[in-house]
Amino acid sequence: MITLEDISKSYDGKIALAHTTLDLAPERCQVLIGPSGCGKSTLLRLVAGLITPDSGRIKIGDTPMTPQTCRALRLRMGYVIQDGGLFPHLTAAGNVTLMARHLGWERERLRKRLAELAELTQLPLELLNRYPVQLSGGQRQRVGLMRALMLDPEVLLMDEPLGALDPIIRSRLQEDLKQIFQRLKKTVLLVTHDMGEAAYLGDEIALMRDGVILQRGSARDLLERPADPFVAEFIRAQRRLWVEDAERRL
Ligand code: ADP
Ligand code: MG
Fold first, then answer.
1. In this predicted model, what pLDDT tens digit does every residue of 5-64 receive, in sequence order?
2. How far is the CA of 211 from the centre of ligand 1 (A)?
3. What's this model's pTM, rounded to 2 decimal places?
4. Could you tell me the distance, in angstroms and rounded to a whole number, from the CA of residue 40 to the centre of ligand 1?
5. Which of 22, 50, 57, 250 is geometrically suited to a Cys-Cys bond with 5, CB 3.0 to 4.6 A?
């Protein structure tokens, strides 16, 4: 569904992503995990068509990402970032429907889709008239998710969507997200720095360091068969959080 072939990207001569190849199966959740600065957001932004690689090829479905196709491809992908990335001067509903209104959707179609998405993301309808500052962090993330899903994209790109939330709210939202992924059958690429979240939400995990994917596999693969000493060290350091997370869900 999404293919990255030998992708590299540098900023001011410093490598952010080096010769990365990755193939995402449709309707699965691929997690990217790794320490801060390892290139996770860069990879996501390349797939989203927000930045261009120095070399290599990206394909969404059968369509290569080029300056010509990039706009149309972007409509097939929903993008969610930490804190929702909502426009402060628009209400929640204004944020969610922005692109659809731009595309000329009728009022009734907008209203129906809004109600559908509010139900899906469990956001009380009356909150849709509020501005982002009048919402809690968790509510803002639900609105961010609604906005990303508005045009019913095939692909969902999420960059630490739950990173700024406290643990209880976060585990609620993780559970809701997992249900939404299963229900909608989207192809998901999700960035997190939390191994518990990765293990819970990801069908597959790619552990990155210094612009390189060190290992790709299930949480169990990474735990039991680390391909690199850094993988073992990263997993060990995260183990406590991971166990705490699992216990909270019991
Ligand atoms: P992560 O999301 O894993 O924390 P990023 O992909 O944001 O990492 O960053 C990878 C590397 O690229 C870091 O060293 C970061 O400082 C650098 N970088 C990212 N974006 C930019 C930019 N717009 N300009 C310059 N350097 C950048
Ligand atoms: Mg990042």
1. 999 999 999 999 999 999 999 999 999 999 999 999 999 999 999 999 999 999 999 999
2. 9
3. 0.93
4. 8
5. 57
Mean confidence (pLDDT) of the chain: 93
Higher pLDDT, 9 or 243: 9
Q: Is 40 in the pocket of ligand 1 (CB under 6 A)?
A: yes
CB 33 near ligand 1, within 6 Å: no
Classify domain 25-50+62-76+155-250 at the CATH class level.
alpha beta
Ligand 2 centroid–CA 32 distance in Å is 10
- Residue ranges of the domains in the chain? 25-50+62-76+155-250, 86-152
> Hey, what are 135's tokens?
């919402």
Residue 61 in contact with residue 1, Cβ under 8 Å? yes
Question: What tokens were used for 116?
Answer: 């559908």
Q: Are 114 and 93 in contact (CB under 8 A)?
A: yes
Which residues are within 8 A (CB) of 161 and not within 5 positions of it... i.e. 6 or more apart? 80, 81, 82, 141, 144, 145, 173, 177, 190
Tokens found for residue 52: 């261009």
Helices (H) and strands (E) in the chain, counts: 9, 10
Q: State both tokens at 148.
A: 């990303």
